[in-house]
């Protein structure tokens, strides 16, 4: 699994096409093979990014994390 920390933005998780996830007991199928998770704390749709970070001036460095195994 690869996590991308977008500069001044969310954590993006790249997933295989057709991936699904369960949030609070409800299963969802992804329209796009990625999830963008809020790391600024300002999203009204937590845990997902809703673009609020652009308006609040959130600053954070870019980065990548790869998990194997
Ligand atoms: S990182 Fe986008 S709303 Fe928080």
From TrEMBL:
<keyword id="KW-0408">Iron</keyword>
<dbReference type="GO" id="GO:0005737">
    <property type="term" value="C:cytoplasm"/>
</dbReference>
<keyword id="KW-0001">2Fe-2S</keyword>
<dbReference type="GO" id="GO:0046872">
    <property type="term" value="F:metal ion binding"/>
</dbReference>
<dbReference type="InterPro" id="IPR042216">
    <property type="entry name" value="MitoNEET_CISD"/>
</dbReference>
<keyword id="KW-0411">Iron-sulfur</keyword>
<dbReference type="GO" id="GO:0051537">
    <property type="term" value="F:2 iron, 2 sulfur cluster binding"/>
</dbReference>
<keyword id="KW-0479">Metal-binding</keyword>
<dbReference type="Pfam" id="PF09360">
    <property type="entry name" value="zf-CDGSH"/>
</dbReference>
<feature type="domain" description="Iron-binding zinc finger CDGSH type">
    <location>
        <begin position="8"/>
        <end position="59"/>
    </location>
</feature>
<protein>
    <submittedName>
        <fullName>Iron sulfur-containing domain, CDGSH-type</fullName>
    </submittedName>
</protein>
<dbReference type="InterPro" id="IPR018967">
    <property type="entry name" value="FeS-contain_CDGSH-typ"/>
</dbReference>
């Amino acid at each position: 699994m690869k996590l991308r920390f977008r500069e001044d933005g969310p954590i993006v998780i790249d997933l295989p096409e057709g991936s699904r996830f369960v949030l609070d007991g409800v299963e969802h199928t992804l329209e796009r093979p990625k999830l963008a998770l809020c790391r600024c704390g300002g999203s009204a749709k937590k845990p997902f990014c809703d673009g609020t970070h652009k308006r609040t001036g959130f600053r954070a460095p870019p980065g990548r994390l790869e998990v194997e195994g």
